[in-house]
Amino acid sequence: MEISTATADSAEVIRCEGRLNMVAVPHLRAAIESAVEQGQPRLVVDLSATTFIDSSGLGALVAGLKRARQAGGDLRIAGGGEQVRMVLGLTNLDRVLRPHERVEDALDGW
Questions:
Q1: Alpha-carbon distance 25 to 71, whole Å?
Q2: 10 closest CA partner among 50, 40, 47
Q3: Beta strands across the sheet bearing 99-100
């Protein structure tokens, strides 16, 4: 799993590439925490290159959402392949973390 960050418009975009599992979760959590600590609580997690997500990955997204909201921001997700969308749907997390097709769509309205 590779995680990279970039500032776009008024949000921090965190791109996850590969498998978002318990091995990669600490890196995602660190990227979220770093952005919030640097004063950027508006986050978009780009899952367009994420091929797999498990329960620990979902937990990291929910924890990131909570952290961002506590800081006055929000966490939105963008992209996501078939497996990612299926897992979000099966767990009903797609109601809380509504997936956007593209990063640009997730940035809209900020």
A1: 21
A2: 40
A3: 2-8, 11-20, 42-53, 74-78, 99-100
- Each residue of 69-107: pLDDT tens digit? 999 999 999 998 899 999 999 999 999 998 999 999 999
User: In whole angstroms, what is the distance from residue 66 CA to residue 82 CA?
Assistant: 25
List domains and CATH numbers for the chain: 2-107 (3.30.750.24)
CA 109 centroid distance within chain: 17
Q: CA angle, corner 51, sides to 92 and 83, nearest 5?
A: 35
Is the whole-model pTM more than 0.90?
yes
Residue 33 CA to residue 54 CA, distance in Å, equals 20
